[in-house]
């Protein structure tokens, strides 16, 4: 099952006006549990910030997180980088239209991108599972962070992230990944080998989150892969499934999980 073609199709629909794009961001914020976790950690980090900061959205993609962070404080400077030129061009145009002047974008490869001692926060959401030379990227992140800066990573775990252990090839997103997912200990060891002195990691997407993810994301994407006609059916599907998925996500966010298909990782310079 392919995820990127679906993202592109949805992007074409919601990218017609800035209003529709903001609406799409809002829908993603509601449906994607990883967004709940990432926003929770960003808000915790922001409570300790009393001065202007510079933030890197490493693998900015469609710009969802850059949009969120840039709206938190106009004195913060956010720099989004992505390896895909069309994503950078698209985001630059949208953020120009919405007058977000504290944002800039640049096409860059994270295996070579370094800005020495620059960023107070580096955000990497669903990026590292796509990069073979992950340790080199972790080194670049370390060198790019300012003193006491924090790296925040959201990535699939090796406990079945992207349904890699589902044994149903067409139902997995793993064909877009270079690794099955990270082990909780493994990723922290890699970060420390890259120079980070303090790390913290925990599981996301426990049992409730996995149910919510299937209802809110997996099954709709399976439908859309089968036929674009299913776009018409999606509103009716979500009328039935939305509230169950929402409750599952709430339980997952505020619970503690011995295992899970996602990881939230923090590291400090």
Task: Give the tally of structural domains.
Answer: 1
Distance between the termini: 38 Å
Provide a count of the helices.
9
Task: Compute the number of strand runs.
Answer: 7
Q: In the CATH hierarchy, what is the superfamily?
A: Vaccinia Virus protein VP39
Question: What is the general shape?
Answer: globular
Average pLDDT score: 89
**What percentage of amino acids are in beta strands?**
15-25%
The CATH architecture is: 3-Layer(aba) Sandwich
List the secondary-structure elements in sequence, H or E. Answer: HHHEHEHEEHEHEHHE
Main β sheet profile? 7 strands, mixed
Query: What structural class do helix, strand and pairing data support?
Result: alpha/beta
Radius of gyration: 18 Å
The helical percent reads 40-55%
Specify the CATH class. Alpha Beta
Strand order of the largest sheet: 3-2-1-4-5-7-6
Task: Indicate the CATH topology.
Answer: Rossmann fold
Residue windows where pLDDT falls under 50 for at least 5 positions: 164-174
Task: Characterise this structure.
- With 269 residues, this protein is of the alpha/beta class.
- The chain has a single domain, classed as Rossmann fold (3-Layer(aba) Sandwich).
- Helices cover 46% and strands 18% of the residues.
- It is built from 9 helices and 7 strands.
- It has a 7-stranded mixed sheet, sandwiched between helices.
- The longest helix is centred in the C-terminal third of the chain and has 24 residues.
């Amino acid at each position: 099952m392919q995820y990127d073609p679906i993202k592109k199709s949805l992007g074409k629909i919601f990218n017609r006006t800035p209003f529709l794009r903001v609406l799409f961001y809002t829908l993603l914020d509601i449906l994607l549990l990883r967004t709940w976790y990432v926003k929770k950690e960003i808000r915790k980090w922001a409570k300790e910030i009393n001065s202007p900061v510079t933030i890197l959205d490493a693998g900015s993609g469609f710009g969802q997180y850059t949009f969120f962070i840039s709206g938190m404080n106009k004195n913060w400077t956010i720099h989004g980088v992505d390896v895909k030129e069309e994503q950078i061009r698209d985001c630059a145009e949208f953020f120009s239209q919405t007058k977000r002047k504290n944002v800039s974008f640049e096409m860059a490869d994270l295996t070579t991108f370094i800005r020495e001692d620059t960023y107070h926060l580096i955000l990497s959401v669903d990026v590292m599972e796509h990069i073979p030379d992950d340790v080199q990227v972790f080194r670049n992140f370390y060198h790019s962070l300012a003193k006491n800066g924090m790296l925040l990573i959201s990535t699939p775990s090796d406990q079945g992230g992207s349904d890699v252990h589902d044994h149903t090839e067409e139902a997995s997103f793993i064909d877009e990944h270079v690794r099955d997912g990270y082990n909780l200990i493994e990723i922290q060891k890699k970060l420390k080998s890259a120079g980070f002195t303090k790390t913290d990691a925990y599981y996301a997407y426990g049992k409730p989150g996995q149910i919510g993810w299937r209802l809110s994301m997996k099954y709709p994407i399976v439908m859309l892969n089968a036929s674009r006609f299913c776009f018409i059916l999606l509103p009716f599907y979500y009328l039935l499934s939305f509230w169950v998925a929402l409750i599952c996500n709430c339980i997952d966010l505020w619970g503690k999980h011995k295992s899970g298909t996602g990881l939230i990782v923090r590291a400090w310079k």
